[in-house]
Structure formats: C-alpha cells, structure tokens
Amino acid sequence: MDLNSGLPYSLIKNGLPASYPKLMKSLKTDVVIIGGGISGALSAHYLVEAGFNCILVDRRTIGLGSTCGSTSLLQYELDKPLYQLSEQIGLDNARRAYTLCSTAIDNIEQISKEIGFSQFEKSNSLFFAANKKDALIIGKEFDSRKNSGFKVQLLKEDEIKEQFGFTATSAILSDQGATTDAYLFTHALLQYNIKRGLLVFDRTTVEKTDYRKSEVQISTANGHTLKAKYIVNASGYEITEFIKKRIVKLQSTFAFTSQQMPTPTPIWKSKTLLWNSADPYLYMRMTPDNRVMIGGRDEMFFNTKRRDKMINKKTLLLKKDFSKLFPEIEIIPEFSWTGTFGTTSDALPYIGTYHKTPRTYYSLGFGGNGITFSVIAAELIRDMICGKNNKDASLFTFDR
C-alpha cells in the first residue's frame, strides 16, 4: 500500500538521516519486529532495554511509510472527546486511556533526553469550537476533563481573541502537549539501539510466516529466514491486508507546510497546538523554523491515485481554513502532501495478540495519536513478552 505521497516536510527537510542494509543471510534472534516506522522503533527501544536480542525489518526504506508524513503533534486528547468515549467504554476506561496518552508524552520527553534527541518541545494545546453550536461540545468536554483531574482552562471568546488572535466561541486550553519530528525520532531511536545490539534491515520483504510450537520462522522474498521466539508486528495500516476482522476504517488526510514567515514572532501565543471540534478536525502547529504546518480535510480512502489527485485542491482549502482564522496573515504553501491513516470505532489502538497468529504481538496505533499510542504499545508488549501482567492491556485487545 502506498501510504503517502507529495512532499512531506520532514522528509524534504531531513532527507535520509541514516542508511540500513538489506537482509542478506538467515539469522536467529529473540524478537523480530516488522515495521520500521515510529511504532517499530519504539518497540525495539523498549525490548532492547529489557534485554532482548531484536531484529527489525521493513520492506521500505526506514521511515518512508506513514511516519515521514506525520505532522508530529503530541496530544493526550484522543480523536473522540473524553465525554463521548466515556459513554462508549465507561468513564474509568476512558479516563485511563486519556491518562496513558498523557503519560506517553512525558515518556517521549524522557526517551528523547536519554538518546540525545533534541527535536522535542513541550507545548500548550488549544481545542476550540469550530462554530457556535460546538460550544456545547467544548463545555461538556471541559467538564469531563476537569472532573477527571486534567489541568485545563475554559477560555471565552474574548480571551481566545486576546491570547491567540482568532475568533472562536470557546476553547479548552491544556498545558500537556508537545511537538517532535516522528521521522527523525525513528532514526534516532534505531541508531541509539543499534549501538546496543539491535539489527535493522530495510528493503526486506516478509513473504511468509510459519507459526511453530516454540518459535516463529519468517521467510523473506529473497530466500532468507529469520527465526525468533516472538514477532512484534508494527506494520500499521497495511495490517488490514491480512487481518480480516474489520478493525479500522482507512481515510486520507492532507497537510502542507508554509514558507518561512517573514518575522520570527510566533503567529499565535507560545506556538500552542491548535485544533478544532469539526469532523474531520483542523489541526495546526508552528515548526522550529517558523513555518505554519496545517492539516485536515480528511476523505475516505478509496485508492492512492484518487487520493493523490486531491493534494492541490486540499492545499487550497486548508489555506482558506487558515485565512478564516487569521485573515490578516498571508501564508504561502511550500510543501504539500497526503497520507493514509486509520480510525477505529472507539478511537483506541489495537495492541496485543490475535488468535490466528501465535507468538505474535501487534502494535497498531491507529488514529491521530499514533505516536503516543506507539509508546503505550511498546510498554504493553514488553510486559507481555516478559510475562508481566499489565492491567491496561484489556483496553486495547482485538476482542473488545
């Protein structure tokens, strides 16, 4: 599956930070990780840290799946508001899911410090009403988050205008958000763990998997085998090609990064992450080099050709969305792209085992929280392989 196209900003800016070999011989290890994006890299980090010998493989060049197209906003808020999620899965479970995502942001910050990765920046996050009638959504969500112990402020129209320079009836301001660069972070994680024994192979296609009593054996397209005690499958949206249970609905999102703004002054306060209550929602951030990155205008995914033809039109529409908020500020799109992503019915990822594939664990961070979900998955899968009971695992099972 072609997961993205166009000119993803991170890929243009950073090129290929590192190169990795193809698998050219058969090997044996503790864990084989399938998928060289952010999910696979984080799984490798946690498992290597736990003392496992690991091999990571990807059929693409590392990071060139969904990861390089990520806008890399880190939020604890799920695609589904807390009050709505509570009605669907229960208040305690919904609160726990939000809390895990919040903790994941702190964990990413800690990992970034540990591996010497500088492209992490804490930020506030502003969730604002897309129109007047959505003020009700904002009010309900504020009450739900405040009652659940999250530090939030409810801003009125005049406060939003004064602090952020645009008009909305109401908004929720949170101090728990961040930005990173998922593509660079993936490479930094892999390079750090290669020094600790991780083996990484890209352009290596998994053709067949044999599930045996005490091991799994992977056969690659060029005739080599990988034997392991366990597999971690972090191949993302392509999992839909062989897991027949309908767990995810594929969609296409669109984004662009503007030319650098002419002055170093942030367009809005403290480079806060902005996103609204529309469905699909609009989201935007500032980059470290003072560009506006904006995304949204999602469409159902049908095929890559149809998706790719929409890039120019969607870029113009996103520019208009920005102009409605900031009519006095002119931004010029420079890099535009589109990518395929997936949504689940409860906005939660799928993590853990699947009954048809023994000795295999899945890290499927579907939705807008893919990076934070990947941290949660890495922790849970590490505990599962280590034989530890983790009470949060039931939130994300295939059987829920």
Question: If you had to describe this structure to a student in words, what would you say it looks like?
Answer:
It is a single chain. The protein is an alpha+beta fold and 400 residues long. The protein folds into two domains: 4-69 and 183-246 and 347-396, 3-Layer(bba) Sandwich (FAD/NAD(P)-binding domain), CATH 3.50.50.60; 121-177 and 247-343, 2-Layer Sandwich (D-Amino Acid Oxidase, Chain A, domain 2). It has ten helices and 18 strands. Strand 14 (283-286) and strand 15 form a beta hairpin.
Please give a quick description of this structure.
30% of the residues lie in helices and 28% in strands. With 400 residues, the protein is of the alpha+beta class.
Global geometry: globular
CATH topology of the largest domain: FAD/NAD(P)-binding domain
The CATH class designation of the largest domain is Alpha Beta
What is the helix/strand order? EHEHEEHHEHEHEHEEEEEEEEHHEEEH
Q: Write down the overall mean pLDDT.
A: 94
Topology, element by element:
Layout: E1 4-6, H1 9-14, E2 27-34, H2 38-49, E3 54-57, E4 73-75, H3 82-89, H4 91-115, E5 121-128, H5 135-147, E6 152-156, H6 157-164, E7 170-179, H7 182-194, E8 199-201, E9 206-211, E10 216-220, E11 225-233, E12 249-258, E13 273-276, E14 283-286, E15 292-300, H8 304-309, H9 311-325, E16 333-343, E17 350-353, E18 360-364, H10 370-385
